[in-house]
Amino acid sequence: MLKVVSRDLWPMLRRKAAASESRRAAIAYVTDGSLLSLRSGDVLVTDASDAAIAGSRASVTVLSKYLKSGAKLFSLDNLHAKAMVFDDWAVIGSANASQNSISRLVEAAVLTDRPELVGQTEKLIYSLASVAIPIDKAFIKRISTIPIIRQPSTLPRSGRANEAPPLSEQRFWFLGISEDDPYPGDSNRVVSVADKLERTLSRKAGSLDWFWWPATATFAKKASVGDIVIDCWRPSSRSRSTTSVRVYKHARIAQIFQERGIGAKAFLCVWPQHSEAQAITWTAFLALVQRAGIRLSFTPQSEIELNAQQSSTLYELWGL
Predict the structure, then answer these.
(1) How far apart are CA 36 and CA 80, in angstroms?
(2) For 71-130, what is each residue's pLDDT tens digit?
């Protein structure tokens, strides 16, 4: 699983933290203990510097409560990271453990259970802890004497809090695309749109190209920007030979364009760098599907929606 979450981020994190057996976190500012439950053996790296305490960016009360629970606490000046590991699940994002974060600010985070990312996040947290100051009873006693200097808020005192827009579900597609199917509209218009988009992209982002799909088809109705496409390219729609078929690794949809009065949509996609070198034959793709344990019937003409796990497994196994 690999997804971006914004709306209701902290309620979900709070539930996950409470249900987990272990919690490790590096969170810059911690002022609300109800958002992150810590128990014996858990790890928290935060900024509990004198300036953070004086500016109400860290709470002595919350840190004292965590310490009494048996959590291992560390203070690192100028920490700005927000990274958490709950059992085998990692979060990397923008959210501090504060009421402002949960009720007034628009936050976002990446959530994943991919082992390499969970491991890297955990490594980061322990690396930060290794250079931070341990928070013990003496540390708590000292910072308890620091006068609190109320900072003027930059947030609105009244009015409705900002709310993140809901994210549409990301979808994953396998599409059989033939080179000789003529676009039913004005291809020059699509090329113009593609040229304008390409000027906004870095070369390192990959290569931009486009294909079209009937507007009434399931893919064209459901697909949106950010979806993933595995492109099965064949030179002719009439040929039944698979000798010339090439399957290209995951591309992302960057823009969708539809001319007025044309029953087709143009999908402008970004293919990763070296996509030509990573393209595989039809036989190799079927072998890859089998290795991934995907029990779907693929043909070079297919339009198939995959789930996130199937797409991720194919991506990881590609080229191995």
Answers:
(1) 17
(2) 999 999 999 999 999 988 899 999 999 998 988 899 999 999 886 788 889 889 999 999
SS3 annotation, 86-123: ECCEEEEECCCECHHHHHCCCCCEEEECCHHHHHHHHH
Q: Please report where in the chains the tokens 């004497």 appear, as a residue.
A: 145
110 token code pair: 């990446």
State how far the alpha carbon of 14 is from the alpha carbons of 36, 255, 302, in Å. 6, 35, 42
| Cβ atoms < 10 Å from Cβ of 220 | 18
Residues β-bridged to residue 231: 175, 248
Per the CB < 8 A criterion, the answer to whether 104 and 76 are in contact is: no
Residue type for position 284? A
* pTM of the complete model: 0.70
Rounded (5°) CA angle 196-200-204 = 125
Tokens of 41: 């053996």
